[in-house]
C-alpha cells in the first residue's frame, strides 16, 4: 500500500470548526435512519408481534369480549399501538449496549463533540423508529377495519403522546444498557418489566372483571392511562385527566432516570 | 515543546484488581511508541485513560500538554483513537461510516463526502465503499477503522492492538499505514502483544506486565540489557524435545526455555564456548536438530528475562 494517495490523504490540513451540539445529535440521528434503511428487518421484527396480537385477540376473543370483532378492534387497536411503542423502548438500551460492546461508543466519546450527543442522537433515532412502527400497526389496523372517529389529527395527537411516554421510558433502558454485559441481557431484563407493564393494564380487556387488588395496580399503571388517553384522542371524547396523568408520569420517570443515566454515562469515562 | 505523553504514577483499579499500577511514561513527539505486554497487562486501560475515556484513580497524565481529567476536551480535540475492536458501525457502508465521523468533526455534508471518498481510495477500500461493513474482511474493517481515526490529522494517534487477529498480508498493510502516519509527523502510541510488531514499528518501547512498567527503551537497548546472545534449537522430532531440554539444562542451567514457535528451545547463552558442547551433546544423544542458530536476543528473550516466563501462551485474561 505504497501509494501517493495515502500520504496525500494523511496530510489533510483543513480543520473545520467544531460541530454544534444540535448538528452532532442530528448526525447521530441520521445514523439511526441509515440503520433502518439498511436493516429494515428491525422494524419488521418489532411490528410483527403486535400485529399478531391484534389479529389473534380480535378474531379469537373480540366477539366474546365486545360483542363483535369490529367493536373490539376499535377498543384494542389504540392500546396495541401503545404496546408496540412501549416494547420498542428496549431497543434504545440494546442499541446503546451494542455500541458499547463493539467499541463504537468509545470512538464517539473520544471525538471532540458535545458529549451527550450519542445519547441524544440515539433518542432522536428511536423516536423515528417508534413513529414508523406506530404507522405500520395503524395501517394494518385500518386494513382490518379500525375506524378512528376523531380522524388523522386525533391519531397523530395520540401517537405524539405515546412518543412522549416512550422517550421517558427509554431512559430506563439507557441505564440497563450501560449496566449489563450484552445486548441479549438487555432484552432478557426488559421482558421482566415490559410484559407485566403492558399486560397488567387495560390494553386488552376492560379491568372491571379483575380482582380488586389487580384493578388497583391497573389503575396506577401509566400504560393504562396512556391507552385510555389514546382511545379518547383517536375516537373523540378524551379525558384530560388521563393525558395529564401520562404527561406527569413521563416527567417523573424522566426526572428520576435521565440524571442517573447521564451520571453513569459521564462516570464511564 | 511539551512531550506527547507524560504520566506519573498512573493508577486504575477495577474492584480489587490494579489494572494499571503506577505507570510513569514519557513519550516524545513525532515517534512511534510501543506499549508491549501480554493480555491483561494493562495496555488498553492505559490507552483508555490517556484518550480520556476512563478517569485515573491516582497519579496524573498529561497528553500534548493537557491534563486528561481537567482538560479532557482539549485532549479530545487533538488526539484520535482506534480501539481494540474495529469500532465502526457494521450496519452502515464504509462510505457512510466515514461521512458520519467527518460530520461529527464539523465537516459540511459536501466536504464530509469528499473526505470519505479520498480516505476510501487511500486505504484501498474504494471498491467496497457502498457495501455494509458486516461484509468486510478483518483487514478491510481494520483499515476502515484506522481511516475513521484519520478524518482529521491528529497530533497523536492511539492504536490499540491494531493487528490482533489479522492475516500476515493485512498486518503488513497496517504496518505500512502506521509508518505513513508517523512520517507525516503524527505521534503514534500503539499497543501490541506481538514482539515482532513492536520491534519493527516502534522507535521506543515500554514493556508492561501486571499493570507495571517493567522496562523501557529502544528495542536495541532492551535487547542489550538481557546480555549475551540467544541460541535457538529447533528439534526435528517433537517427542525428543523434552530430551533436548534436559541435555541443554545440564549445560546452561536454568537459562533454557520454550521458544515462541513449536519445537523450538531458546537458551540464553552467557559464554559462547558452551555452544559447541551443546551441539555435541545433542548429536551424541541422537537428537536430530532442524536448525541451530546463535543470535542477538529477540524481544521474546527480553520478555522472558524480565518476567521469567515466555511472552506467548499467556492465560487469556480479559483486558479491561
Largest binding interface between chains: A-B, 43 and 54 residues
What structural category do the secondary elements of chain B indicate? alpha/beta
Which regions of chain B have little confidence, pLDDT < 50, spanning 5+ residues? 313-320
Number of helical regions of chain B: 11
Count the beta strands of chain B. Answer: 14
The CATH first-level class of the largest domain in chain B comes to Alpha Beta
Number of domains of chain A: 1
CATH homologous superfamily label of the largest domain in chain B: P-loop containing nucleotide triphosphate hydrolases
Count of distinct structural domains of chain B:
2
Helix content of chain A: over 70%
Write down the overall mean pLDDT of chain A.
89
CATH topology of the largest domain in chain B: Rossmann fold
Helix and strand element order of chain A: HHHHHHHHHHHH
Layout of strands and helices, then pairs:
The complex is a heterodimer of chains A (269) and B (320).
Chain A: H1 4-10, H2 21-38, H3 41-66, H4 69-88, H5 90-102, H6 104-110, H7 117-144, H8 151-179, H9 183-199, H10 212-220, H11 222-235, H12 240-267
Helix pairs in contact in A: 2-7, 3-4, 3-7, 4-7, 4-8, 4-11, 5-7, 5-8, 5-9, 7-8, 8-11, 8-12, 11-12
Chain B: E1 5-14, E2 17-27, E3 32-36, H1 43-50, E4 58-63, E5 66-67, H2 72-78, E6 79-82, H3 94-104, H4 109-122, H5 138-149, E7 156-160, H6 168-183, E8 187-192, H7 195-201, E9 204-209, E10 212-217, H8 219-226, E11 229-235, H9 241-252, E12 256-258, E13 264-269, H10 274-284, E14 289-295, H11 299-307
Parallel strand pairs in B: 3-8, 3-9, 6-7, 7-8
Antiparallel strand pairs in B: 1-2, 1-4, 4-5, 9-10, 11-13, 11-14, 12-13
